[in-house]
Design brief:
Layout lengths: L14 H14 L3 H12 L4 E3 L3 H6 L1 E4 L2 E6 L3
Parallel strand pairs: 1-3
Antiparallel strand pairs: 2-3
Helix pairs in contact: 1-2
Length: about 80
């Protein structure tokens, strides 16, 4: 049931995603978990990341190659 939910998507962590995450972590001083999540979302062209994390919200957005993802506080 959860796998077929219309508002939930599952993305694989690939070698490419890991490389993107390592480069983002280095460039933006991100922790490993944040870097992997952001790297995966950027690789899969997710436009927005909704978060309450002040450190990410300060960045406002992140770009990988020609794709940009925005960090948005849902409240």
């Amino acid at each position: 049931m959860l796998l077929r939910h219309p508002f939930i998507k599952f993305y694989n962590q690939t070698k490419t995603v890991s490389v993107i995450a390592l480069r983002l972590a280095e460039k933006h001083a991100l922790g490993g978990r944040d870097a992997l999540i952001i790297g995966n979302y950027l690789a899969n062209r997710v436009p927005n990341l909704y978060t309450h994390d002040d450190d990410l919200l300060k960045l406002e957005e992140m770009t990988w190659k020609s794709y940009t993802m925005k960090f948005i506080d849902p409240l």
